[in-house]
Amino acid sequence: METRPHLEIITIPPDGKPLVRCQNFPECMCGDDCNDAVPADPAIVRRVLFGLLIATAIIDGVLLYLGLPVEIE
Predict the structure, then answer these.
(1) Which of 37, 29, 48 is nearest to 8 (CA)?
(2) pLDDT tens, position by position, 37-69
């Protein structure tokens, strides 16, 4: 499990806009604001992936049903 990086708020110049930076800035390459460095909650990611799996299965089932040949007597 990934640990959250240590984030600190700095201002450059001292009276400037507050910025969030991680401990590895600027080598971290996490962009203008290091908030992207915080990993997403695994439970939320798991729910989204499970939802996509179910939606894909339902869509595949409907397409399979619609694609079956109909016998005409």
Answers:
(1) 37
(2) 555 667 888 899 999 999 999 999 999 988 877
Distance CA 67, CA 53 (A): 21
Q: How far apart are the first and last CA of the chain?
A: 60
Contact between residue 23 and residue 17 where contact means Cβ atoms under 8 Å apart: no
User: In the chain, where are the structural domains located?
Assistant: 7-67
Token code pair at residue 1: 């499990």
Structure token digits, residue 25: 């800035």
Q: Strand ranges (DSSP E) for 1-73? A: 7-11, 18-22
How many other C-beta atoms are found inside a 10 Å radius of the C-beta of residue 50?
10
- pTM of the predicted structure, to 2 decimals: 0.44
